[in-house]
Structures are given as structure tokens and as C-alpha cells.
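hey so u asked for the seq, here:
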Amino acid sequence: MMDPTDDRIAHGGALSEAVARHGGSASEWLDLSTGISPFSLPLPELSADCWRRLPEQAEVLRVCELAKRHYGGSVVPVAVPGTQAAIQLLPWLAPSADMAAIVSPTYGEYELSYRRVGKTVKHIETLEAADSTLASTVVLANPNNPDGRETMRDDIFGFARAHRHRLVIVDEAFADLRQDLSMVGAAGTEPNLVVMRSFGKFFGLAGLRLGFVFAEPRLAGILSQRIGPRAVSGPALAIAAHAFSRIDLIGELRGRIDKANTMTRSALSRAGVRIVGEAPLFFYCDVGDGAAVRDAMASRQVLVRAFDHSPSRIRIGLVPDELSAVRLRETLRFAGARVS
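ran it, C-alpha cells below
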């Protein structure tokens, strides 16, 4: 079993570490190291009771019903304090399984969650490659993080149907703007399918720590028991209920994200950066030496993400406005000239 003191991995959003290393104040930095929307839904006014009381089960159920409608589910999901918390519990959905196959490269926490409990992990390039393994669990992020790779819904559905003996886990943290890829509607009707959705990335409220897991009742029951009662805070539930009920604000947010995506794409193009993958909330770029470009950009207080598994590449989140787009463009030009 892994030593839990040795299994930490780097993530985006480590702004305080960047400030400590490269200087400046947090307010001076342009943090593009995550795939979180640069815009947030306007927050509702929360009652004092929302902060003082423990959340009632009826409140949890109401928000889960709203999440079912919002995401297009066929079953009521399990509310979790961020999908990161659900990832830690994935091995318990098939506790007797010795091997998990993970479509890679991808978010590193899937592997860690299985290795922590002594499971073997097999990295595969496609869902179909699981056929050549003994894995009884297959994990797929769709769209994938960090490269934005997409797997079509029919392909996932066909794989799940043809491999009923395997548990198929799909992380749709970045699917809010690609609902055509979503398997949420099939989770619950397909007994071996589990789908995770993140609330914070699309709504720009990652600090809220909220997510939803769609699965058939037996698997949902395991998750609920493992995560325990009152895992999600009252304020998080109140904000989610507000967000899910405001279709007008959701439409406005989609429009702002689309505009930010266009501005970011234009900045990358004008800087001569090659986009090799993307999702609506980020771009994956080949820059020759990802770590060197990241560090050069950090010297000008712009934070992006580099990867050990793909050393020539960086991931860049969306800029919030035109001024930030110009700053990104000029910083990329500076970094490119410095590294070359």
C-alpha cells in the first residue's frame, strides 16, 4: 500500500506557491492554471440559519432533484463535497477488484485513489484497450483533463453494454458545455455505469466544494454510506439551489464563457502558440518545453500549468477580459523568445 505522505501531486491553482517563488502579490497575478470558469454566478443572499443549522436531509434531496433536472439524469444523484471527495471513494465501489484501467494521461488523483488502497493501475490509451487487461474497473474523463480529448457517447454506451462485468466510471467535470457527450442519462439504467459531475468548474465556484455522482441505487448507497451524513454544507446547498433554478443566469454564463474562449484562442493564435487539444474551459498547447515556458511566464506573474507526463505542453485556462488576453499574448511571446 502507498505511503500517504509520498503521494501528493501538483495541481493547478497553486497561486500562493507561485507568489512565494516568483514574487508579487496575489492580486497582481493572472492565474490561468486551472480549468475553472473565470466568471461566477451571482450569489444569493443567504440566511443566518443557513450558516447556523446543520443541513436537513430534505434540503439535500431538493438540491439533488434540481441537479438531476439540470444535468439530465435518470436517477437522483449523490451530493458530495466536490468530485475530488468522490474520487477517493471510487475503489470502494468494487472493493474486490484488484486492477483499475485508467484512460491516460489524465487527472492524477484517479490513480492515487486506487494505489492508496493497494490496487494495481493500468494506463490505457482508449476504452477499448481495457480488453487486453484484467481490470474490472475502467476510469475515463470526458472531456479529458488536461488535453480535452473527447470520447463519443455512443462509444461509451457501447463499451458499458458490452462489458457488464466491468465498472465504468466517467468523470464529466468539464462536460457542462459539451452536454452532447454526457452519459448522465444512462447512469442508473446501466448498472455498471457511474458518472461524476462537478458544480464548481462551470459555475466558477470551485471553492464551494460541491459535486454530484449518478449511479444505480446499490452503488449510490455505497457512496452515501462512505461519505457519511451532512457531507455537503448548508451554504453550498443553498447556492446550488439558486444556481440550478436560474436558467436565465445559466444562459448568460454560457455566453460569457464562449466569449472568453474566443478571446483566449485569439491570444494564443497571435502569440504563435500551437493548440493541440482543448475543452470549452481550457486549451492544451505544445510550446516545446512546458516547464521552461511556465517559469518564464511566472516571472511576469502569469500562471499556467505544465505536466511531467507531457513535458512539451502546457494547459491554459480562459482569460476573463480583453486586457488579460493582451497580457497573455505578450507574456507568451516573451516566454517563447526567452526559452528559444
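The radius of gyration is 20 Å. Confidence is low (pLDDT under 50) at residues 1-6.
lmk if thats what u needed
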